[in-house]
Structure formats: structure tokens, C-alpha cells
Specification:
Order of helices and strands: HHHEHHEEH
Number of helices: 6
Strand content: 5-15%
Strand order of the largest sheet: 1-3-2
Shape: elongated
Distance between the termini: 36 Å
Number of strands: 3
Largest sheet: 3 strands, antiparallel
Oligomer: single chain
């Protein structure tokens, strides 16, 4: 942020060393933007439901649609978004495509989020 436009404090900053230390640890704006975009994907309850069922088991689109009482088309649309965010992965078995959480990071995010709201 430009110093000219930074909000002013009522007192001079007495913690310059800490400010500089934190500034040195800050990720780039691009990384922070990407992180914000990732969390936006979590901001949709349908996508959270899909992630939660995939937390429990690897499933095909038809199974997910049946579990969530939604159309295959609606589930497929959400799965595309989740795949582009690298939150779900897939594998083919014949003509059937099975979806799963992409990795343990996604499992951890969901688990920690659930722990937090249940506190």
C-alpha cells in the first residue's frame, strides 16, 4: 500500500522491527490473490456438500447426484469448478469416472473447518 494512502495512526509506530519482520514474511500479492480465489470455491454450499461426500468415499457423478438429490448436470458443473481449483481428482474405470478429494490438504481443510464450527 502506498504510504500516501495508508491510514494514519494516532501515534507513531513503535514496532518498526516487527512490521518489517512481518512484511518480509508476507506472500506475494499473486499468491494472496490465488488463496482468496481458493477460499471463494469453498464459499458455495453445494461444492462443500460435494467435498464432504468425497471426504467419505470416492464416488461417480451419479452417486453424488443421488446423495445430494441433484441433477447429474448440476453436479458435473460443480465438479468442473472443484477440479479447476485442484480440490478434486478423478480416475476412469471403463466408462465410469470416479471422483475423490485431490489430496490430504483438502481433507485437512475440510476437517479443520468442521472442527472449528463444532467447537
Amino acid at each position: 500500500m502506498n504510504q500516501e494512502h495508508a491510514p494514519s495512526c494516532e501515534f507513531l509506530c513503535a514496532h518498526d522491527r516487527v512490521v518489517e519482520q512481518v512484511r518480509g514474511q508476507m506472500p506475494s500479492d499473486d499468491h494472496l490473490f490465488d488463496l482468496a480465489e481458493l477460499y471463494k470455491v469453498f464459499g458455495d454450499s453445494t461444492r462443500i456438500k460435494i467435498l464432504y461426500v468425497l471426504f467419505e468415499a470416492e464416488l461417480c457423478v451419479c452417486d453424488i447426484a443421488q446423495l445430494l438429490n441433484m441433477t447429474v448436470s448440476a453436479i458435473s458443473h460443480q465438479l468442473r469448478i472443484l477440479r479447476s481449483a485442484k480440490l478434486v481428482d478423478f480416475r476412469r474405470e471403463g466408462k465410469t469416472v470416479f471422483y475423490s478429494l485431490a489430496d490430504d490438504h483438502v481433507r485437512t481443510i475440510l476437517g479443520m473447518g468442521m472442527d472449528h464450527i463444532l467447537e
